[in-house]
Amino acid sequence: MINFEFHTPTKVIFGKNAESLVGQEIKSRGYKKVLIHFGGTYLQENGTLERVHKSLTDSGLSYVDLDGVVPNPRMGLVRQGVELCRKEDVDFILPIGGGSPIDSAKAIAYGLANDFDLEDLYMGRVQTDRIAPIGCISTIAATGSETSNSSVITIEKGWLKRAYNHDCARPLFAIMNPELTYTLPAYQTASGGADIMMHTMERYFTTTPDVDLIDRMAEGLMVAIKEATVKAVRCPHDYEARATLMWGGSLSHNGLTGTGRTADFASHKIEHEMGGMFDVTHGAGLCAIWGSWARYVYKTDVARFAQFASRIFSVPLNYHDLEETALKGIETWEDWCHKIGMPTSMKELGISPTEEQINEMADKCVATGGGHVGFFQTLYKDDVMNIYRMSR
């Protein structure tokens, strides 16, 4: 186990009708005007937005709405949000939704607290530890952005999907009501479950030795999420399954399962470029990539892949041939993806990139790491291109 810092300041308010507490939570912190940030129409249709408006009004707070967030949230809307906050004297930012509104709101909060061009922040040209105050109401179990330090934004110029990670971006509070996820389409539920699995797997596949404690915690999380995703897809109103997914989403990405080890995140970076170019659903894109990544790198540590197969998917360990167990584990992961309606290749995802597009995606991918990505196995441009080809 290597040295680490673990910082999780977000207050979690979890359970039925929790969103009704948002007004008093913000008022208790001394703020007065709120930007509510969201996308789509489902918040209006299921009454969530109306309940939030009432909670804020009942607490004597004023607010302004900014909708329009789309999957893979755009820098253009972020800039509009910063301008609106300054015009309306907003002093608190409240996203409602999943990772897209929350990540977009974090970017707005960075813009409100700093005077540099936000593109410079997300492209790595500047850094900051300053951000405007933010809380959130989570309505989708997926990215874990409600308690994480991460924000991912798509820059329309070049369609670059880029992240900025800093602990200042962890929301002051996260309100989570599993019932708000009941009306999610099955595809979005499944994609969210896959994203939660992948956030854990990106940390699980490490070359850091002697990490059994966190291995065991991560394995318990993955087994619970694997089972809960199937239940939630089949029975959308299963409260316990939805609660497991919602809380698991935060635990998978708040940093806990990455303590004491070096995490990989190559699959995420490979998917980010695919998502930027083709605008695919993030969790589904990760499913389409991971099997190809795994087959490309598993020989780096066959025993770890065999451990994953045995402990997560109950594949019998072949002590005489761990490679057989490792490969069976990858197949079993793909079987689980198909069981919940997720793709395991770009063809199943519905895209077919050309060689030119693969070259462009690989270029952009390795540029984020100074010419390479990944820590489980270092991947250079040719490696990333090969993984895209395998997935195609």
Automatic annotation (TrEMBL):
Record keyword Oxidoreductase present: yes
Keyword field contains Oxidoreductase: yes
Descriptive protein name: Iron-containing alcohol dehydrogenase
Record keywords: Oxidoreductase
Transmembrane segments: none
Signal peptide stretch: none
Higher taxonomy: Bacteria, Bacillati, Bacillota, Clostridia, Lachnospirales
A matching Pfam family: ADH_Fe_C
Domain Alcohol dehydrogenase iron-type/glycerol dehydrogenase GldA intervals: 9-178
Domain named Fe-containing alcohol dehydrogenase-like C-terminal: residues: 189-390
Domain of life per record: Bacteria
Molecular-function annotations in GO: oxidoreductase activity
EC number: 1.1.1.-
